[in-house]
Automatic annotation (TrEMBL):
Pfam family, one: Alpha-amylase
Keyword Phosphoprotein in annotation: no
Gene3D superfamilies: Glycosidases, Oligo-1,6-glucosidase, Domain 2
One function term, GO molecular function aspect: isomerase activity
Protein name as annotated: Alpha-glucosidase
Natural source organism: Mycolicibacterium fallax (Mycobacterium fallax)
Length: 540
């Protein structure tokens, strides 16, 4: 089995992981200092959100130079030293590539604005509609809200599926294709093990950029001329060939919000990408039937192309798991926009959410394939929903006309130690780039480190057992179990997940290896709890 087929990957949101320089912003120095924490946690690889020079119009997803390092985060030399240290510690490193759009500060866009001959062809520039060209060229809406087009001084319009500072590239242009293959090689030559591909389903647009007539929801799964066009696959066949120039082969993970797992599997054909996030898992409510349906569907679709399923409960774009699970659960898959708007109106029971998130983590880590952990999940952090409006940084807030608070609440700097902000995030008492809440001392790494009941210790134990017991244990075989419970066997081990509010009986002849909640016994599975059982034979 190759490493990426069963890896646990830890997502480092670098701006909020650890600050080494003391300016309240996370950086490479801070990350290097905490490599020991990550190896002790027991993950196999790191995925680092964009660390390139960027005006930060969208937290680094507006890249000005794909082959450099954002000065707030450090230098290229520090990045290379970090790569060497991570490898020496046994960790693989995946970077984040943003091919759908550049920053407006990228040299190509500057050339386009300056009217250099041919420079606009690398983007989507169009004349406007209306008698004076005063209307956008089509009806597409930006994912962050408002029209997906902005007008420049000479009256022409350019496309941006996200913020106006993120102009979309024209992937029909051969220079664009060549440039990104060179960017891949630039980092692969420096030892990077792979790339997470941002908006992997967006690069190719339908010819003629036809109207869609409704909003540009990234998560609603409906067909759209900007998403999941067949032409995108040719690009990834080229990228796979680049990955194969290296030994060991480099790997890709796609961020592709597509209509269903069948469409997702198309990105994972043997000559395309290696893995793709299975977002339905994080869109599923905390209900056994829904989780089982999503898991079955993901495993079946991945199997059709021989790819491992990839489980994700959280990331820097969605409400943290603890908070998603802290409110009443719908009976259908949810999109993140929907969640934010509805769930902030209902009071959150974070103790309940944390209890379910612990159980969810043991489900995630028992499934075959790869698993991603978003920084802070292992601390049981909740979404910080109450931020002063003037401190919010996510462009979603302004672009939605201040109706969608956006994603800042899951991007708060991590608490490491101490009872007051910055909780060891920065080496000195500074104001962090997003404020930390007053009650996070008890969630800090130092407070949880030696507490056997902590979320951190649960993750450490789970990752240890996963390595020795679940890895390579074979496919899921579902077991009979009461309604609201999910039970499966893989090899010698069974996983029982109780998503209900009442206790259920466990099978006889089983030994509990790990429980998400300490009140689990050899015979009883408490509410909202998962157990891993050593069960050579089971009788109910
Ligand atoms: C992806 C990123 C998100 C970013 C967007 C635009 O969805 O995960 O954070 O805002 O792409 O690049």
């Amino acid at each position: 089995m190759r490493w990426w087929q069963s890896a646990v990957v830890y997502q480092v949101y670098i701006r909020s992981f650890a600050d080494g320089s003391g300016d309240g912003i996370g950086d490479i120095a801070g990350l290097r200092d905490r490599l020991g924490y990550l190896t002790e946690l027991g993950v196999d690889a790191l995925w680092i959100n964009p660390w390139y020079p960027s005006p930060q119009a969208d937290a680094g997803y507006d890249v000005a130079d794909y082959c450099g390092i954002e000065p707030d985060y450090g230098t290229l030399q520090q990045a290379q030293d970090f790569l060497a240290e991570a490898h020496a510690a046994g960790l693989r490193v995946i970077l984040d590539i943003v091919p759908n759009h550049t920053s407006a500060a990228h040299r190509w866009f500057a050339a386009a604005l300056a009217g250099e001959p041919g420079a606009r062809d690398r983007y989507h520039f169009r004349a406007g509609r209306g008698d004076r060209g005063q209307l956008p060229p089509n009806d597409w809406q930006s994912v962050f809200g408002g029209p997906a087009w902005s007008r420049i001084a000479d009256g022409s319009w350019y496309l941006h599926l996200f913020a106006p500072a993120q102009p979309d590239l024209n992937w029909d242009h051969p220079q664009v294709r060549r440039e990104f293959e060179d960017v891949l090689r630039f980092w692969f030559d420096r030892g990077v093990d792979g790339f997470r591909i941002d908006v992997a389903h967006g690069l190719v647009k339908a010819p003629g950029l036809p109207d869609r007539d409704t909003g540009l929801g990234m998560l609603d799964g409906a067909a759209h001329p900007a998403w999941d066009q067949d032409g995108v696959h040719e690009i990834y066949r080229g990228w796979r060939a680049v990955a194969r120039e290296y030994d060991p082969e480099r790997v890709f993970i796609a961020e592709a919000w597509v209509a269903d797992s069948g469409r997702l599997a198309r990105y994972l054909r043997p000559d395309e990408l290696h893995t793709a996030f299975q977002f339905d898992f994080l869109r599923a409510p905390w209900r056994a039937a829904s989780l089982r349906e999503v898991a079955d569907d993901a495993m079946a679709a991945a199997a059709t192309v021989g790819a491992p399923p990839t489980w994700v409960l959280s990331n820097h774009d969605v409400t943290r798991t603890v908070t998603r699970y802290a409110r009443s659960q719908p009976d259908h898959l949810v999109g993140t926009d929907w969640e934010r708007k509805r769930w902030t109106r209902e009071p959150a029971d974070h103790d309940l959410g944390r209890r379910r998130a612990r159980a969810g983590a043991l489900l995630q880590l028992a499934l075959p394939g790869t698993a991603y952990i978003y920084q802070g999940e292992e601390l049981g952090l909740e979404e910080i929903e109450q931020l002063p409006d003037e401190l919010r940084r996510d462009p979603t807030f302004a672009q939605s006309g201040f109706t969608d608070v956006g994603r800042d609440g899951c991007r708060i700097p991590l608490p490491w130690s101490g009872a007051a902000a910055p909780y060891g995030f920065s080496p000195a008492p500074v104001t962090t780039w997003l404020p930390q809440p007053p009650h996070w001392g008890s969630r800090a790494v130092a407070a949880q480190h030696d507490d056997p009941a902590s979320v951190l210790q649960l993750y450490r134990a789970a990752l240890r057992l996963r390595r020795t017991h679940w890895r390579g244990a074979g496919p899921v075989r579902w077991l009979d179990c009461p309604p609201g419970v999910l039970a499966f066997r893989r090899g010698e081990l069974c996983c029982w997940v109780n998503t209900t509010g009442r206790e259920v009986a466990l099978p006889k002849n089983a030994t509990v290896l790990l429980a998400s909640h300490s009140t689990a016994t050899e015979t009883r599975l408490p509410p909202d709890t998962t157990v891993w059982l050593a069960a050579p034979e089971i009788s109910l």
